[in-house]
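Open question from group meeting: does this chain pack into something compact, or does most of it stay loose? Before anyone orders reagents, we agreed to write out a predicted structure and look at it together. Recording both the input and the output here so the notebook holds the full record.
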Amino acid sequence: MTMDATLSGHLQELRRGTVVVASLTVLREAGYGYSLLETLSAAGFEVEANTLYPLLRRLETQGLLTSEWNTEEARPRKFYRTTEQGDAIAAALRDEWARLDKAIGDLDHPAGTDPRSEQ
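Structure tokens returned:
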């Protein structure tokens, strides 16, 4: 296995969980799947529709999202929004992300060697 393939596999693993956090964060405001794909892409989260739509269904089954159809436009669209539980899970995941980011930073720069701490 080449280094590129190894890195690609690890990056895919790392990104997989971030899409959940990002989706729950974005969907605090109601949105439909395609607009979520565009928003995530613009923010640097490259996710394909065939990955996102099953994820949205799974999050809905878990009670983290709610959905409803908007049939007022020419093309009906299913809008998603986080539930109260979804908001709480997203906040907990973002807190854990921040904790892990700090822990990795601490490992990368042991006490007293982090140039960021000298500000």
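Observations to bring back to the group:
The beta strands are 31-32, 65-70, 77-82.
The chain has four helices and three strands.
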